[in-house]
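Attaching the record inline, Q. Sequence:
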Amino acid sequence: MASIALAAGMLDARLKKAPALNYARLAAEGDRLVITANVLDSALKLSLPAATETIGQVALRSEQLAALAASFPPDAKITIDDDGPMASMRCGRSRFRLPTLPINVLPSTPTIKDETGRVTLGRSKLAALLSKPAFAVPSDQARFNLHGLFLHDTAEGLTAVAADGHRLARVVAPGISGLSHDRRLIVPKQAIKILLKLLGGKDIEPVTLRRSTALLEAKSLGFSFVSKLIDADFPAYERLVPAPSDNWVTVNGAALTRALVRIAAAMPDEGHLQLVGLTWAAPEQSLRLCIARAPDVADDPIEAGVNGQGRLAVQINTSRSYSRSSRPSAFASMRARARTAAS
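Structure, as predicted:
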């Protein structure tokens, strides 16, 4: 049932205007039910265990099917019979007649023909690689080459980068290489959302990523997902990354999160986006947090490993990111660097 919901979730308001894109293909193949949803920009194929009485296929409206399936208990047995222009759906004493669509009007599923890169990695490693930088992917599509996650090989490993013009996030999966050496593997934001939902299944191990010049495929036990890439070059973000310096501070992630919650609570009500000041100076082994525009209002030092000295300001969104004191830390520790001691 969750699989049907995933297929339905690929639709947006723009795509609902095309009738064929509203339908998912259900194919009975031996002891498996294969569900295929294709919205042109991406396609999802799910394979589920099923008791098949007759081999065949039918196209049903994915949202309608998902809504009905979600209303039954998770372990409910659902039976679908193809009766021509209508299909019957049964669960217990419930009966429904659902409209169908001829299979031949469904769009063909995109496939990778000329593979240019491939890697295989664990589910949790891939989920971290995609989810950690995703916050920096902009919602505004004005700069379409930034409206996705950039994947490429570096000397450190497979690297994911997102930037919105104000923030830049970069995450590395060490020791993984062979997927992409160019700047054109930009995965759309919507595709990343679907991939992260798929990676929520703990029985998905491992995951293989394949690419061509225009497509990316993620494949594992029970699913394959193909998405078109953004047709653009990702900007040269490397020049924005500070060069290594001897001025750094390392802090516990949970302690930093709690300190940010306290600073956010003390901030004046002047909008959601606020600047937090960070300062450190050896030999004092602490990181001091304050309100950048009102340093006298709050002074909150936390224990840290310190080398050199630094002063900088970071922007936080007090409406979402740190408004709840129960917000868990997303990392065990964090290291910040200052380009120079006075930066």
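The two ends are 53 Å apart (CA to CA). Residues 253-266 form the longest helix (14 residues).

More tomorrow.
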